[in-house]
């Protein structure tokens, strides 16, 4: 059978889903994480390989000889809101925009009720 979304065999998509799920579990347990992203007062342990594989920004940051490619932490200070970074990481580790869509819908509801 072939998955209609990517025109690839179903065993491939189930393997990819399984891989992302396992990487996310490792991240949540802080196993094999090799960088900590900081935004505001929050810290997010991550895997450089996951970030670089889903974002050219992180790929350039971690492979281009920048200071961040050697440091154990990357601090965005207040230039990136922690909730935004959390959503980006959730997407990187799941491939799902559900939490992003849910958060945007919640904020729109809050604005319309405020």
TrEMBL record:
Keywords: Kelch repeat, Repeat
This protein's GO CC annotations: Cul3-RING ubiquitin ligase complex; cytoplasm
GO biological process: ubiquitin-dependent protein catabolic process
InterPro entries reported in the protein's UniProt record: BTB/POZ_dom, SKP1/BTB/POZ_sf
The protein's name in its UniProt record: BTB domain-containing protein
Domain BTB span(s) in chain numbering: 33-97
Lineage of the organism: Eukaryota, Metazoa, Chordata, Craniata, Vertebrata
Taxonomy, superkingdom: Eukaryota
